[in-house]
Amino acid sequence: MMNNWTILSRSALILTIFLLAATKSAVSNDGDIECNLHNSSCEACVKYDLRCYYCANDNQCYRWIGMNDECKHNSYWRTCKLSASIWITLLVILFSLVTILSVILIIWCCCIGPCCRRFQQRQLNRWDGARRSMMNMHQERQRLRQQQRDHFRAKHGLTNNDTTSSKYTRFS
Questions:
Q1: Domain locations along the chain
Q2: Nearest 5 degrees, angle CA 113-CA 114-CA 118?
Q3: Which parts of the chain span the membrane according to its record (predicted)?
Q4: What is the pLDDT of residues 32-70, one digit of tens each?
């Protein structure tokens, strides 16, 4: 069975490889791209390359070096349905959530999880001890009751040793 560190390290490695591949495809500098040749429509611009965005104010396709101030709220990246500012906001929120969840997972796996498992084990040990104690008390009470019955039978001559000479007979 794999321990938490192995699972956590493999997950972190896969996430790192994915993020590096996404970053490489988004900002690689292999060759000059000419976004301004795709000014015909928003769809043509955003589908040409990930490094291009479409400015709806002047209907131009630009290379993503930095956002123009005039196109800040009316530009499109990757799709013409959502503006680039919404994309950036969604990516920041998504990255923040992934980071927070990763930190929580690391804290849980490293700190809280083992403490909870030790607590559960102590609790189970207590319950087993209480169960054994109750069973011992039950057996002791059964033994005392049997002694009292045997003493009563001996006192009144109702012993089971000699069944033929016993004064005690069951009704049928």
A1: 32-82, 92-154
A2: 120
A3: 86-116
A4: 678 878 777 888 888 888 788 888 888 888 887 766 566
